[in-house]
Amino acid sequence: MTIDIISYTAEQFAALTAEQLLEVKTAQLQKNRLLLKLEEEKEKEKQRLLDNGTFLSPIWALYCEKLTAEYEQEITQVREALLFYLQYSSKVDEGDGFPYLVDYSLSLDERVTIVKEYYETTYNKDWAAILEAYKLDRVAVAYLGEYYGALYDHFNAGVMAGT
Fold first, then answer.
1. Which residue stretches of the chain are H helix?
2. Is it the case that residue 162 has pLDDT exceeding 80?
3. What are phi and psi of 146, to 5 degrees?
4. Measuring CA to CA, which residue among 65, 3, 72 is closest to residue 35?
5. What's the pLDDT score for residue 9?
6. Is the pLDDT of residue 69 over 90?
């Protein structure tokens, strides 16, 4: 099964508990069912319009647009519920003396900024050292959620650029 309901790295999936993985699987199956149902409803309406001789009218495009928007909204709700669950079930103890601020009341953008600034200032923009240290940071995997991979890509781009 392809997991595309969330954008986690393989490392992040490996760090999830069995219960969390089950929630991911459940959300993915919900998304897959919704997409299948969307295609079935489109096909049913297409056939109805063909039978009535009105398929080539603008009705079909408008119907598809409206129906797709409705299903995308449902999928977004499933995704957001899953991310909320993962964010709070993966919570690390804030009293463990981490080198950067670990505060779950902050937005994900604020968390990324804090972690990014910590690594860039601590390692003086030595991208190879930053990337190696970041790979070993078990806290960031849970703390940054879907943004972990994006920050990893940012640090890796620094390595690839050689700056």
1. 10-15, 18-52, 59-89, 108-122, 127-136, 138-144, 147-161
2. no
3. -65, -20
4. 72
5. 86
6. yes
